[in-house]
Amino acid sequence: MTTQPVALVTGASSGIGKSAALALAQKGFRVFGTGRVTAHLAPLEGLTFLDLDVTDDASATAAVAAVIAQSGRLDVLVNNAGIGSAGAAEENSVEQARSVLDINVLGVIRMTNAALPHMRAQGSGRIINLSSILGFIPQPYMAVYAASKHAVEGYSESLDHEVREYGVRVLLVEPAFTNTAFEANIAQPDQPLRVYAQQRRVFEEYIAESVKAGDDPAVVAAAIVAAATDPKPKPRYPVGRTARVSTMRRLVPAGIFDKQIRKLNHLPA
Questions:
Q1: Has UniProt tagged this entry with the keyword Oxidoreductase (predicted)?
Q2: d(CA 90, CA 93)
Q3: Is residue 1 part of a domain?
Q4: Which domain holds residue 38?
Q5: Domain count, the chain
Q6: For each successive 10 residues of the chain (269 residues), what is the average pLDDT?
Q7: In DSSP terms, which residues pair with 248 in a beta bridge?
Q8: Rounded to an integer, what distance in angstroms lies between the CA atom of residue 149 and that of residue 175?
């Protein structure tokens, strides 16, 4: 068994996951990064790639087993793999919503269930779940995605109370819009309706502008490293403007906050 700390980062082929994996490697971790198919990826110093489909129970179990087989331990699991979802709630079928939730919520649960027995056995470990600013505020035309991140928030905080006595912490990193390929990978509505078409186009412009002006993935990676290494970790690590919005949500009267959400999304008052 190695004494070097070991991290497993899901969705590490690009964007936040890639930045986080490299940042953890620079911090001294042995890092395993995952993607659905990794054979085509260029080698990265300090990073070992594993194939993983977070929607498959056996794949999740096999990925964690591969880490344990190669290193004998797992100290940090970063549940980063996820997918965006756009369109009015009514425009997303139940099947489409199920697909998003299978990745964003059940994927987190699958990976956590696979990792927890090893962390409990070694008496230590941290599970870092990528939430979002949309884990605690609404976002019109992203209802399914917001629902998935709200679910990750509740799951993580509840689980943290269950496993803390075994030396394991479950922590949240909450980015705002980040300058990645997120926009290009958003699942589009599978049953679009004419009644929402104009506002959907407004939303798409808003998201494109927000992503372009968003935080660098390295900023989010720094928060993930902090969550992995802080001697006394915080339950939540808001990133960028998330901290400001979180404070507003707590302190600003509900009616004013509601009006601001509608104004930002160019919705009628």
A1: yes
A2: 7
A3: no
A4: 6-264
A5: 1
A6: 91 95 97 94 89 98 98 98 95 97 98 98 98 94 97 98 98 91 82 96 89 89 98 95 82 93 90
A7: none
A8: 11
Helices and strands (H and E) in the chain: how many: 9, 7
Other Cβ atoms closer than 10 A to 56: 14
Distance CA 126, CA 28 (A): 16
pLDDT tens across 105-118, in order? 999 999 999 999 99
Q: Let me know: does 195 contact 96? Beta carbons within 8 Å.
A: no
- Name the token pair of 86: 């756009």
Distance between CA atoms of residues 191 and 184, nearest Å: 19
| Domain containing residue 91: CATH number | 3.40.50.720
Cα(73)–Cα(67) distance, integer angstroms? 7
Tell me which residues are annotated as active site. 13, 131, 145, 149
pTM of the entire predicted model: 0.94
Q: Has residue 107 been placed in a domain?
A: yes
Strands 168-174 and 125-130, sheet pairing: parallel
